[in-house]
Write a structure and sequence with these properties.
Shape: globular
Strand content: 15-25%
Number of helices: 5
CATH architecture: 3-Layer(aba) Sandwich
CATH topology: Rossmann fold
Largest sheet: 8 strands, mixed
CATH class: Alpha Beta
Radius of gyration: 18 Å
CATH superfamily: Alpha/Beta hydrolase fold, catalytic domain
Helix content: 10-25%
Structural class: alpha/beta
Number of domains: 1
């Protein structure tokens, strides 16, 4: 398990003592606060927290394929704001920038020889969990994980428990529009190590909903705690503030030719997902 650098800048805004702010890069000087993070495999992360000493329940948010650089979808920040407003400390690791992909991997693959797969990012998630459990303002027994798209698939990779090994991991997970097909096969059942919620749009042409429905059904038949909500008319990135649009350059294994996907916000799905995530984490991360 590799180290992860945690950066926090406390900014008073909207009654929240910690707001999500871009973490300083390794080259630009030290962050406001930092945990040890030896080069070369340090992964920066921002921490947002409510006011008060805690200890707080916490959530690790795994970003989508757009990363956290200038091309970021902005969805991770929206979720961080929602969760901090509900009393959670949030850690947001940046898996792409230190690995040479600051603009994300939505339209171009990562640099040659660089692994930013969901399975690799699961290691980032567990490194984040280890750091959170060292903090006096975090209840280490009550840490969840969530993410959308690539981050949703990374959440599935993190929550998977092969051979019944729970890895002492996260207490609950939310996967937003993940690529469920990557975790399935003939006769394969996905086994999460803790309660899992999947939220996805019925009109998603990038990570289709049907495999997620099958994944959840198989898990339920095996007695595993997987719930799913499929939003009618919602596309990929339904939690985005941006309008729906099709981009032909996006890498998409789900379509013939391997390119082209539709993304965009759906206000009804976004509003319901906030309530579902709040209720889900409220049940599984509450003191």
């Amino acid at each position: 398990m590799h180290p992860i650098r945690a950066c926090a800048r406390l900014i008073a805004t909207l009654g929240i003592a910690g707001a999500l702010v871009a973490c300083a890069s390794r080259e630009s000087g030290p962050p406001t606060t930092a945990a040890p993070a030896p080069v070369p495999d340090a992964v920066p992360a921002t921490i947002s927290k409510p006011s008060g000493p805690g200890p707080f329940s916490a959530v690790v948010i795994m970003h989508d394929c757009s990363g956290l650089g200038p091309r970021s979808s902005g969805a991770p920040g929206r979720w961080a704001k929602e969760l901090v407003g509900r009393g959670y400390l949030v850690m947001l690791p940046d898996s792409f920038t230190p690995r040479g992909a600051p603009d994300g991997v939505c339209v171009a693959p990562p640099p040659r020889g660089v692994d930013v797969s969901p399975e690799r990012r699961a290691r980032d998630a567990y490194a984040a969990l280890a750091q959170l459990r060292q903090r006096p303002d975090v209840d280490g027994r009550r840490v969840g994980i969530m993410g959308g798209s690539h981050g949703g698939s990374s959440t599935l990779a993190t929550m998977r428990a092969p051979g019944g090994d729970d890895r002492g991991g996260f207490a609950a997970g939310v996967a937003l529009y993940p690529r469920c097909a990557a975790f399935m096969g003939v006769g394969v059942t996905y086994h999460p190590r803790a309660p899992l919620l999947i939220l996805i749009g019925e009109s998603d042409d990038w990570t289709p909903a049907a495999p997620c429905r099958t994944l959840a059904e198989r898990a339920a038949q095996a007695g595993d705690p997987v719930a799913i909500t499929i939003y009618p008319g919602a596309h990929h990135s339904f939690d985005s503030p941006n309008p729906v649009r099709y981009v032909a350059a996006r890498i998409n294994p789900s379509v013939a030719g391997g390119r082209g996907a539709t993304t965009g916000g759906n206000p009804a799905a976004w509003a319901d997902s906030i309530q579902q995530v709040a209720a889900f984490f409220g049940r599984h991360l509450a003191p």
